[in-house]
Design a protein that fits this description.
This protein is of the alpha+beta class and 258 residues long. Helix content is 24%, strand content 32%. The chain contains six helices and twelve strands. It has helices spanning 9-14, 31-36, 84-105, 167-171, 177-193, 201-206; strands at 21-28, 45-52, 70-77, 109-112, 116-119, 122-133, 140-150, 214-219, 222-231, 237-241, 246-249, 255-257. The strands form two sheets. A seven-stranded mixed beta sheet has the order 1-2-3-7-6-5-4. The protein has a five-stranded antiparallel beta sheet with strand order 11-10-9-8-12, with no helix packed on it. Helix 3 (84-105) crosses helix 5 (177-193). The longest helix has 22 residues, at 84-105. The protein starts with 8 loop residues before the first helix and ends with a strand. The structure holds biotin. Residues 30-32, 52, 55-58, 61, 63, 72-74, 126-128, 146-148 line the site of biotin.
Length: 258
Amino acid sequence: MKQRDEMDVRQLERDIPDFYHVHVFDCLESTNTWLMGHTDLPEGTVVIADAQSKGRGRAGHSFYSPGGTGLYLSLLLKPERNMEVSLLSTAAAAAACAQAVEEIYGVSCSIKWLNDVFCGGKKIAGILCEARLQAGGDMPQAVVLGIGINVHPCRMPEDLKELAGSVEAFAGTEKPRRILAARFLNIFLKYYLALDQRTFLNAYRSRSAVIGRRVTVMTGSGSYRAAAIGIDDACRLIVRLDCGEIRYLSSGEISIRL
Ligand code: BTN
């Protein structure tokens, strides 16, 4: 962007439902880490940082979060339901992100199960969902849903260049990050309030980069090839092994390669 893209909180709050309460920081270690330390705040608390010094991805990876370029946003949820909600909320957020990017930039996005959003062949967004459990149960006391979207073009480190890109490098247009944040939060809330009805699933499935493809499933102990044949109502990936066996994948420890 030619001028610095400041996050105007007042304007953002005008464009999103009252459910949300937004806090904006110049730099945090990680918006997820910050919110996991403040789970006493009300549901709907949104934390946005212009930059993260220790942005975190799944499976202990870091998430590259330079200042002034990406949308680094975490959202506090307090669903009174079991842990299935984390998986569904993550998938709903991926669908909401893909839709928001498409509407604002006029591009198409795809979703690599479970929660990587791609645009123009590059990963433009990822989601990290973490939960604090109630003592002695599997009910979450709080869920922190963190999303990182590479919005404005930036110089990617060598090891990310092949895989990751930014929305605007592909779309060729520039918008303040606030516009994308607002659209994402509006779409996500509709999906979240109707999580039981799985209203996000059509948007999720129709953008799947995986269904109908052969994939490599990587587990803790090795990997195997299979055909991805669908995504069930619990957002598990259904795969068929060459021997005909059908498996339902839901573990956060499994990753797939196309
Ligand atoms: C992934 O692709 O593995 C998930 C990346 C999640 C990044 C976001 S940025 C906002 C929030 N804070 C973090 O430290 N991580 C998430």
